[in-house]
Design brief:
Layout lengths: L12 H15 L3 E3 L7 H9 L3 E5 L4 E5 L4
Antiparallel strand pairs: 1-3, 2-3
Helix pairs in contact: 1-2
């Protein structure tokens, strides 16, 4: 008879993906050119809506930046 293992509750995949994007940006110094970010627009928009990141127009493209925490 197999024993049942208790598992941790799973977060929805979009919140895990958003957390991955934030981690990726922080590992890259807090920002990255938007065209190099390999995440869906929905994930990026969810972070923008939560005011965790912002997009800056550099004149030569767009930069996705982590919002500084005070």
């Amino acid at each position: 008879m197999a024993k049942h293992r208790q598992t941790k509750p799973v977060k929805d995949s979009s919140s895990m993906t958003a957390a991955s994007l934030l981690h990726s940006l922080r590992c890259r110094g807090g920002s990255a050119p938007l065209h190099t970010v390999g995440f869906s627009t929905g994930v990026i928009q969810s972070l923008l809506d939560r005011k965790l990141v912002r997009v800056q127009n550099t004149g030569c493209g767009f930069l996705l930046q982590v919002v500084e925490e005070m």
